[in-house]
Amino acid sequence: MVRFAILPALMLLVASAADLSKGRIIDRVVCSADARQSYALYLPSAYSAARKWPVLYCLEPLARGRLPLEHFQEGAEKYGYIVAGSYNSRNGPPAPALEALQAMWRDTHEKLSIDDRRAYLAGMSGGARDATDFLATGVFSGVIAQAAGFTDSMVPKDFSYPLFGTAGTDDFNYPEMRQMDRELDAHNTPHRLVLFAGAHGWAPSTICAEALAWLDLVAMRAGTKPIDEPLIHILFESGIERAKASEAANDFIGAYLETRSLAADFKNWEDTAALDKKAAELRDSKEYRKALKAEERATGRQQELMTKIFSLARDLNGPGGQDSLITLRSSIADLRARGAAAEDSDERRVARRVLRGATVQAWEQSSVQREKKDYAGAAVNLELTNLIEPDNPEVLYNLAALYALSNDRGHAMSCLKKAVEKGFGDRARLQADPSFDSIRERADFRALAGQGTK
């Protein structure tokens, strides 16, 4: 069981936000109890300590605390949400992310007037997996999961929390999010999945606003927010327009998802009989079935290409390594060409998913191997990342570090020089990084690090 520290209710009596600006993103708030922890904060313009407000805590996979607030700001202002994004939560072991979340919780409760019945989590990619896991703390009332779902990619059998999911059509986790939505159909809990044209990342601001509005509906249904009939009707009509627009654009999967959700979300509030019928018609239509088959083929092709790429990468250091390298480079070049096509297609989507998915998976595997001091294995995965993103100085820097840790000094310096050529310029980081101890006294290293000669 994940444990969570909850402040005594009396803390709310002394909370004050007099020194915090409203209606704009506050770039960084340092936690009073732990100066190592900080977060970005957004307070709606109407915020007042005279009443309690719903809050959304955001977990970003690269600890970019401000980024999710830039996506949620529009909706937070419109629907009256406090939003906080940690600068300490990132991909990796869950303990640091939980510590960061607890620090945000404590600090916001000390300084702000928060409705604990309406505290929510949002996360993207690995942050989404942490967010769904941390629901087990029992203090949150729902989650917005973007670009990923659960830690093992399967919905737990006892899952019972409202979940709003998002996925871009070019996202390598698109198949996972579609599968998650199907599994949630079997659970007696509110859920939605909204798809958009885009890659792996936070959803557009319009969809983030839609997610907050949906949480409002869930709260009204649960009795933690007063029924707002005008808002219900506005959201209902907006949803109908979105469904019609999706169908008009021949997006039959999107049209079905929207229609199905409208029928469930607004039942007993609006007349949803026609929506139930429309959802059934869409589900049984030949256009929808055709779209599902195309989606299944794309998912199969994505899995096939990912397997091929990682198989070739594993063979790079084997007897046929040169042949594997030639084939791998050719495959990546072909995917790049397909991914750069001007018009959207299943082929373009698959290419983009595979390229980005292989990059992220290889990077994550490399990080795990580095933690285990398997520097050679980590370098193989990072070499794959470098083949896909040859102009990324961060990849080259980390590859140089792995070779230095392996005492492969020649490769280490070669990668480090390329990193500098591609834009790496953090000399202080380079000087302090113990990974480079094996080459630290070399003249060429000292020149790159700006240390002069001995």
Features:
454 residues, alpha/beta, Rossmann fold, Serine Threonine Protein Phosphatase 5, Tetratricopeptide repeat, 2 domains, 17 helices, 54% helix, globular
Quickly name the level 1 CATH class of the largest domain.
Alpha Beta
Major β-sheet strand ordering: 1-2-4-3-5-6-7-8
| CATH third-tier fold name of the largest domain | Rossmann fold
In angstroms, what is the radius of gyration? 24 Å
CATH architecture of the largest domain: 3-Layer(aba) Sandwich
Overall description:
- This protein is α/β, with parallel strands linked by helices and 454 residues long.
- The protein folds into two domains: 11-226, 3-Layer(aba) Sandwich (Rossmann fold); 298-448, Tetratricopeptide repeat domain (Serine Threonine Protein Phosphatase 5, Tetratricopeptide repeat).
- The protein has 17 helices and eight strands.
- It has helices at residues 11-14, 66-79, 94-111, 126-134, 174-184, 205-222, 229-248, 252-265, 273-284, 286-314, 321-339, 346-371, 375-388, 393-405, 409-421, 427-432, 443-448; strands at residues 25-30, 38-42, 53-59, 82-86, 114-124, 143-146, 163-168, 191-196.
- The protein has an eight-stranded mixed β-sheet with strand order 1-2-4-3-5-6-7-8, sandwiched between helices.
- Helix 10 (286-314) runs parallel beside helix 12 (346-371) and helix 14 (393-405) runs antiparallel to helix 15.
- The model is unreliable at 6-17 (pLDDT under 50).
